[in-house]
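Protein Record: Sequence and Backbone Structure Tokens
======================================================
Tokens: labelled as protein backbone structure tokens, with as many entries as the chain has residues.
Task: work out the structure tokens from the sequence, keeping to the layout shown below.
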Amino acid sequence: MNWGADLFPILLAMAASGVLAGFLAGLMGIGGGIVTVPVLYFAFGMLGVPEFYHMHITVATSLAIIIPTAVFSARAHSRHGAIDWSGVRGLGPGIIIGATVGGLLAPYVKNDALVMFFAILAFVMGLKLLLPLEGKVIGDKIPSGTRGFGFGSFIGGASSLMGIGGATFSVPLMTLYGTAIRTAVGTASFLGLLIAIPAVISFIYAGWNIEGLPAYQLGFVNLIGVLVIAPLSTAMAPVGAALAHRIPMRLLSIIFGAFLILTAGRMGLPQYFPF
């Protein structure tokens, strides 16, 4: 892995992604991984990360960045009373189990499969954000018990494999069950912490004895990426959280949805994108 003279543009891109990821983490409850994963993926590619574990390092590093970002974001939303703790209890156990299992299984998933998994789900989530689906409700309470565990397990497992905080799954789920959007966003910020911590531990363990990984690694977690992005994302999370309680979110959803669809195409079908 070449941390050489051409590093400045890559570090600048990482820093910019940290600012945007932290802002969106606070604003939309996401952990920021949906922004940092594409940036880290292309940055590590330019730095010569071994192809076989390219996406694994990207995902693990993104999840490590989510931990401090989620702490600051959740704390800011909690000050506004925007975390549904009953929803956390309903989804939390399944999320923790799913995130742990996803991290442990990741080394056995081929790099191309992880990339395509991310691209497909990013496309679906982007499409959902573009469509005017607000106000569609199928229940009046966030699921708990067996259903809550099942939903949580999927959210935790899929999010840990994608390197995201899970809000792109949990926010739509909670709004479908009658949770106000701002409360769903605040709750998702805390759930992102429940995803990231066990997933990162699993990725560190899974990558601990693997030979041929780059320098500055803790298992699959790249410490340079964490040190560059995490301080900026944590600084911006409270800014986004403050704005989440002041502005309409429809336009942001449209912009973010378009970004996700473009990202999905660039990662899943790179031969059709010249940039």
Notes: The two ends are 22 Å apart (CA to CA). The mean pLDDT is 83. The chain has one domain: 8-267.
